[in-house]
Write a structure and sequence with these properties.
Elements (H helix, E strand, L loop, with lengths): L1 H19 L20 E5 L39 H8 L6 E2 L7 H4 L2 E3 L17 H13 L7 H5 L1 E5 L4 H8 L27 H23 L4 E5 L8 H4 L9 H22 L7 E4 L1 H9 L16 E3 L17 E3 L16 H10 L5
Parallel strand pairs: 1-3, 1-4, 2-3, 4-5, 5-6
Antiparallel strand pairs: 7-8
Bound molecules: 2-acetamido-2-deoxy-beta-D-glucopyranose (6 copies).
């Protein structure tokens, strides 16, 4: 545990150092962590917390105004007012944000910083929205490497970091199906329901499902590392009970503890899985990015960076529960309201942080655990 904490701290501090342009990492000689490891490429797998433009234009809110109003001023397929986790991680490594795979022509200048396979709405299993699950995302990556003329060679992969996000779409689907996830069917195009009252208590069947999700995630992490990628950073589940989709019930006043306990349970299993994957390795290739603690510390003003006045209240909100941020009617009239300054809000819509929110949460990852 000790080593792992040190490793985590090293990673965070390393990311922070690069982000702030400080060069402290040159002065330290640590045996663990990312010190001394300067990835030249970033490969990204997961969902809307990391997606930078893979979702289909027609179906996805991420391609609708006002998504992207802070950066770059128009929608780019990011589920935010602007930059997301991927952008901050890439920047902290001194890399450009890797291209979203559906926009790449696989020419060297397109793929030199890596590739982003993350796809909004997806999970490790089948979810409520169409899109490649994490297994399929890794399949695509693997086929690029195993190709007759692979675009990445072994030494490229040895200087690569993978970022993996899993922010709860499996659980939304599970809840929407009344707790009977059948891995083979999907209501194509259906809107994801808010994480609902199913988390009222951690019921045994939910517990079992969380175990299945984390086991599948573990398999995926191992596969990614097995391709030759040197380090794999996986996001812990954010506090689900603090998402506006949940706190709307109490007018965005307080987080739902029951849901947060479910997220904590997921994270406990993930911590065990990562410890198990690192067991016996000499370079601890797997590391957790603790979005749970970082979200909480920002929401509770403990992060030392930006303070948000009403941190649980989203900036962009449907005018009624039937509508979402970005919806318009037949005449093009807005069916949502958007706050005056998205930079003053932590949450953007019912599930996702604003750019300011992501920036603060990213910076809050630096605190040692
Ligand atoms: C991921 O999706 C593919 C294609 O739909 C499917 O064959 C596979 O079983 C899915 N994987 C998991 C773990 O659900
Ligand atoms: C691997 O490919 C990179 C370009 O992506 C090239 O600079 C490097 O020389 C190659 N290394 C080997 C061992 O082929
Ligand atoms: C868009 O949503 C519709 C259902 O509303 C679904 O049938 C279709 O497959 C989706 N298209 C894409 C490209 O995901
Ligand atoms: C959490 O959500 C459940 C289900 O909606 C509700 O019964 C419970 O009162 C909530 N708890 C808090 C502290 O808001
Ligand atoms: C690490 O491996 C040892 C020996 O196989 C085992 O006893 C121990 O439980 C493992 N620890 C974890 C965290 O998996
Ligand atoms: C956080 O700080 C802001 C600005 O100082 C304040 O308005 C807000 O009430 C604080 N929130 C908490 C939970 O302390």
């Amino acid at each position: 545990m000790e080593t792992q904490n040190l490793f985590f701290f090293s990673l965070c501090f390393f990311l922070f150092s690069l982000l702030t342009g400080s060069s402290h990492h040159h002065h330290y000689q640590l045996h663990h962590g990312l010190y001394g490891f300067q990835p030249t490429k970033l490969f990204v797998f997961g969902d809307s917390y990391a997606d930078t433009g893979n979702t289909r234009i027609k179906n996805s809110s991420s391609w609708k105004f006002p998504y992207g109003i802070t950066f770059p001023g128009k929608p780019t397929g990011r589920f935010s007012s602007g930059r997301v986790l991927t952008d901050y991680i890439a920047k902290s490594l001194g890399l450009k944000t890797p291209i979203a795979y559906r926009w790449t022509n696989y020419e060297p200048d397109h793929v030199q910083y890596g590739i982003n396979f993350a796809y909004g709405g997806t999970g490790v299993f089948k979810t409520l929205l169409p899109g490649p699950n994490m297994t399929t995302q890794i399949d695509i990556f693997q086929s690029l490497i195993n190709d007759g003329s692979p675009i990445y060679n072994t030494s490229d992969l040895q200087s690569s970091l993978a970022l993996v996000t899993l922010s709860g779409n499996d659980y939304s689907a599970y809840v929407a199906k009344g707790g009977s996830q059948t891995f083979g069917t999907t209501e194509n195009g259906a809107k994801p329901s808010p994480i609902s009252s199913f988390f009222v208590e951690i019921r045994r069947d939910l517990e079992t499902f969380i175990n299945l999700v984390v086991n599948q995630l573990k398999t995926n992490l191992e596969r990614i590392h097995g391709t030759g990628v040197k380090k794999v950073a996986v996001a812990a589940l954010q506090p689900l009970g603090c998402l506006p989709g949940r706190t709307i019930q109490n007018s965005f006043q307080q987080c739902n503890d029951t849901d947060n306990k479910a997220a904590t349970y997921h994270n406990r299993l993930l911590t065990e899985a990562v410890a198990n994957l690192n067991n016996g390795t000499n370079d601890s290739p797997f590391v957790i990015l603790d979005l749970y603690d970082s979200f909480i510390s920002v929401l509770q003003n403990k992060s030392g960076s930006v303070k948000f006045e009403t941190p649980l209240k989203p900036c962009c909100l449907g005018i009624s529960s039937e509508y979402s941020c970005g919806d318009i009617d037949d005449k093009g009239e807005k069916l949502y309201t958007v706050c005056e300054n998205p930079e003053n809000a932590f949450f953007w819509d019912m599930y996702h942080p604003t750019q300011a929110g992501w920036h603060a949460a990213f910076l809050a990852l630096n605190s040692p655990l």
